[in-house]
Write a structure and sequence with these properties.
Methyltransferase, Cobalt-precorrin-4 Transmethylase, Domain 2, Cobalt-precorrin-4 Transmethylase, domain 1, five-stranded mixed sheet, 26% helix, binds S-adenosyl-L-homocysteine
Length: 267
């Protein structure tokens, strides 16, 4: 039936989101796949604990930090000839800054099946750590996941100043060493000096998480004082600090005067 009879015996590659760092924040499905894996290729220092905790004895576990993309895909392809389940373990969610498509294309070209298991992104974990909400009624109903330009150029129209003009929640990845660019962009978009900002270093990492709060005016200094210069999420949002606001617009979903599919208004 098939023109490639060997293909049926090849294993499948699973791109698994390991979550933000706490090994308990991997999904049940991700953990299950790891426990069945014959080989695991993990991305750097952030997710090694999940790999070593959940992978079975005898599983081939390899850190990808010294490998090129070509070497990684060659390794994954080679492992599928030996194992039914091969896991590529990535921080947070594999679809965010994870080179997912670059790795998947050669697999598809080689006739290897692959699938993605989503993960808890560090953006979610950072807001959770701080007890903050990404959205609030009549404050902002949108979230932008972005970064500032480093060696990877930003596509036209996506410079932070343009995005910040929307006054939504901004979760800024990969930019902690470029805080001066973040600040300049927010100022260019008219954010006031007292706009609240949040930086979370190693969100969810047991014993290592740092939550820094400040304003556009002082957040860089706060980071310097705390020695935070890597593995950090920057959040700028009009929702920050809402726990302590004097008044808040209520969410319609839980409003007693609001009828919806599951509940009739009581007033
Ligand atoms: N796919 C990942 C993002 C990878 S890009 C995700 O969904 O979270 C790497 C960037 O993610 C880092 O520069 C940092 O901005 C952020 N990051 C990853 N893990 C983090 C953590 N535990 N705490 C805070 N930021 C983190």
């Amino acid at each position: 039936m098939t023109s490639n009879p060997g293909a049926a015996s090849l294993g499948k590659v699973w791109f698994v989101g390991a979550g933000p760092g706490d090994p308990e924040l991997i999904t049940v499905k991700g953990q299950k796949l790891l426990s069945q894996a014959g080989a695991v290729l993990f991305a750097g220092s952030l997710v090694d604990r999940a790999a070593t905790l959940y992978a079975p004895a005898g599983c081939e576990i390899r850190d990808s930090k010294d490998m090129t993309l070509e070497e990684m895909t060659a390794w994954l392809i080679e492992q599928t000839s030996k194992h039914a389940t091969v896991v590529r373990l990535q921080t947070g969610d594999p679809g965010l800054y994870g080179a997912l498509i670059e790795m998947a294309r050669p697999l598809t070209a080689a006739g290897i099946e692959w699938a993605v298991v989503p993960g808890v992104s560090s953006a979610m974990a950072s807001m959770a750590a701080a007890g903050e909400s990404m959205t609030l009624p009549e404050v902002t109903q949108s979230v932008i996941f972005t970064r500032v330009e480093g060696r990877t150029p930003m596509p036209e129209g996506e410079d932070l100043a343009s995005l910040a003009a929307h006054r939504t929640t901004l979760c800024i990845f990969l930019s902690i060493t470029l805080m001066y660019k973040v600040e300049a962009a927010l100022r260019a978009a008219g954010w006031p000096e007292d706009a609240p900002m949040l930086v979370v270093h190693k969100a969810s990492w047991p014993g290592e998480e740092k939550i820094l709060r400040g304003t556009l005016a002082d957040i860089k200094q706060r980071c310097r004082e705390a020695g935070v210069a890597s593995q950090a999420m920057i959040v700028a949002s009009p929702t920050l600090g809402a726990l302590h606001w004097e008044s808040l617009v209520r969410s319609k979903l839980y409003d007693p005067t609001f009828t919806h599919r599951f509940r009739k208004a009581s007033a």
